[in-house]
Design goal:
- The protein is an all-alpha fold.
- The protein has three helices and no strands.
Length: 51
């Protein structure tokens, strides 16, 4: 069952992928040299604001 938020839209938690999983994926990209430490830190802050 999908929980509904305001105006009948799916609740935010049901729509967004797990923030912790996204951060772990970003860390893997950083460790592989695809992202810089600065890029990782910026995206991590952005994701944590969603919690």
């Amino acid at each position: 069952m999908i929980q509904r938020g305001k105006h009948g839209a799916p609740a935010e938690a049901a729509v967004q992928p797990n923030v912790v999983e996204q951060i772990a994926k970003l860390a893997s990209l950083r460790d592989a040299g695809i992202l810089t430490d600065e890029e990782f830190a910026e995206k991590k802050v952005e994701l944590l604001k969603r919690l």
